[in-house]
Write a structure and sequence with these properties.
The chain is mainly beta. It is built from 2 helices and 11 strands, in the order ααβββββββββββ. It has helices at residues 6-14, 30-34; strands at 46-52, 58-60, 62-71, 77-84, 94-100, 109-116, 123-129, 136-141, 146-150, 156-159, 166-167. The strands form 3 sheets. A 4-stranded antiparallel sheet has the order 2-5-7-6, with no helix packed on it. A 4-stranded antiparallel sheet has the order 8-9-10-11, with no helix packed on it. Strand 9 (146-150) and strand 10 form a beta hairpin. The longest helix is centred in the N-terminal third of the chain and has 9 residues, at 6-14. Bound molecules: zinc ion. Residues 131, 133, 150, 152-153, 155 line the site of zinc ion.
C-alpha cells in the first residue's frame, strides 16, 4: 500500500531525469521522435474550402474531418476549414452540403457544424453527405473512366475499371 516505484521517487525527489538532448531536433522527446514513423503521410496544412448554400453536396478533397465552419463575406457561401490531403494519401471522396434551419435534410446525411450570418439573421447547417450512390445514371465514357450522376444525391460520379462508382 502506498508504494511509489523507485524510479519515480528518484526522478521526482532528486531531479535525476535526463535533461532533453539539445543535439536532437526533437530535444529528446520520445513522442515527438516517434510520431512521424508511420507510413501514412500526416496532414500538416489547413485549407479553406467553400460550400454554397443550395442544398447540393460538394466534394471536398480533405484529410479528416471539418475543423470549423463560418459565414464571412457572403450570406449564401459557407467557409469551412480542414486539413488538406497530403501527397500520397488516398482521396477520401467526402462530400458536404449546407441547408437552412427548417429545410429538409437528406436521410443519408449527418450534421457536422452550424454557423450564423454576421448579422445573426440566418443560421446554416453543414451536413456530410453519406449517400452510397447505389442508383447511378451512366452518362458515358470519359477520359478517366465511365462518368455518371448519382440519382439520389446528384453528385457527379466516376467508375474506373471494375471499381465502384465514386464521387469525381
Ligand atoms: Zn449519391
Amino acid at each position: 500500500m502506498g508504494m511509489i516505484p523507485a524510479a519515480w521517487g528518484l526522478a521526482g525527489a532528486h531531479g535525476k531525469q535526463h535533461p532533453p538532448d539539445p543535439t536532437h531536433p526533437a530535444g529528446g522527446n520520445t513522442y515527438a521522435r516517434t510520431r512521424h514513423r508511420g507510413r501514412m503521410p500526416r496532414p500538416s496544412v489547413i485549407h479553406r474550402f467553400q460550400i454554397p448554400v443550395d442544398g447540393h453536396p460538394r466534394i471536398l478533397d480533405i484529410a479528416g474531418d471539418l475543423l470549423h465552419a463560418a459565414v464571412r463575406h457572403r450570406p449564401d457561401l459557407i467557409d469551412v476549414w480542414a486539413y488538406a490531403r497530403p501527397d500520397g494519401m488516398k482521396h477520401m471522396h467526402r462530400s458536404f452540403l449546407v441547408v437552412g434551419t427548417g429545410h429538409t435534410t437528406p436521410l443519408t446525411s449527418q450534421h457536422v457544424a452550424t454557423c450564423l450570418t454576421p448579422d445573426g439573421a440566418l443560421v446554416w447547417h453543414v451536413l456530410e453527405n453519406l449517400c452510397t450512390h447505389q442508383a447511378v445514371r451512366d452518362t458515358g465514357e470519359g477520359k478517366q473512366g465511365r462518368a455518371g450522376v448519382c440519382c439520389d444525391c446528384g453528385l457527379p460520379l466516376l467508375q474506373r475499371g471494375t471499381e465502384p462508382w465514386l464521387p469525381a
